[in-house]
TrEMBL record:
It comes from Halogeometricum pallidum JCM 14848. This is Mg2+ transporter. Its main location: membrane. Belongs to the SLC41A transporter family. Residues 49-181 form the SLC41A/MgtE integral membrane domain. It comes from the Archaea. It is found in: Membrane. GO terms for cellular component: membrane. The chain crosses the membrane at residues 14-33, 89-113, 125-153. GO terms for molecular function: monoatomic cation transmembrane transporter activity. Keywords: Ion transport, Magnesium, Membrane, Transmembrane, Transmembrane helix, Transport.
């Protein structure tokens, strides 16, 4: 295989995922634009958005890389079975890390904004929003990452070239969507209390 052949193959595998990532990013931007009222109602939420989206990419990109490596090494088979302890452990660790990182980001945003003298929502509200959005988007991301990595591997694609763009796209779209759901849910609960 020549260098040119390798480059063509890499672009052939990655280009559809990159185009999907671009479209997904635009969709996430449209959803975020529609959240103006929520962003005004929860001071500090806008500061939290980039941290939450970056967390999704980092945590679930790592999950995809771990699964791809396990496939390449023959440690797991490209199918979902209830008895696969390695796959369950990797998914649970990613979900746990995502929730902890979300809570940490919310507390950090609260502390930084408070130290700067900026208006900020109560720390419980920010943590509640971040953790609920993290849980909902995490569940979707675990399912999407496992499905895409296994499907790509079974079709002879390198899962490593698929994971990054797919996690970015799914994390952005569902991260912003579930952030909106979380804001509305937490504010409704706070209003009742």
């Amino acid at each position: 295989m020549t260098i040119r052949d390798a480059a063509v193959e890499a672009y052939r595998e990655a280009l559809p995922a990159l185009v999907a990532s671009l479209v997904g990013g635009l969709i996430a931007g449209v959803v975020l634009t529609g959240m103006r009222a929520e962003l005004r109602e929860v001071p500090g939420l806008l500061v939290l958005v980039p941290a939450l989206l970056a967390t999704r990419g980092n945590v679930y990109g790592s999950l995809g890389a771990r699964i791809a490596t396990a496939l390449h090494q023959g440690l797991i088979e490209p199918s979902v079975t209830a008895g696969d302890r390695r796959l369950r452990a990797a998914a649970a660790a990613a979900l746990g890390n995502g929730l902890l990182a979300s809570a940490f980001a919310a507390v950090a945003a609260f502390l930084v904004l408070t130290a700067l003298g900026s208006s900020v929502a109560p720390v419980g509200v920010l943590v509640g929003i971040a953790v609920l959005a993290g849980l909902l988007s995490g569940l979707v991301l675990v399912a999407v990452v496992i499905t895409v990595v296994f499907a790509g591997y079974r079709r002879g694609r390198n899962p490593d070239t698929l994971v990054g763009p797919i996690v970015t796209t799914t994390g952005d779209v569902f991260g912003v969507l579930f952030l909106l759901v979380a804001v509305r849910t937490v504010l409704a609960v706070v209003e009742v209390l």
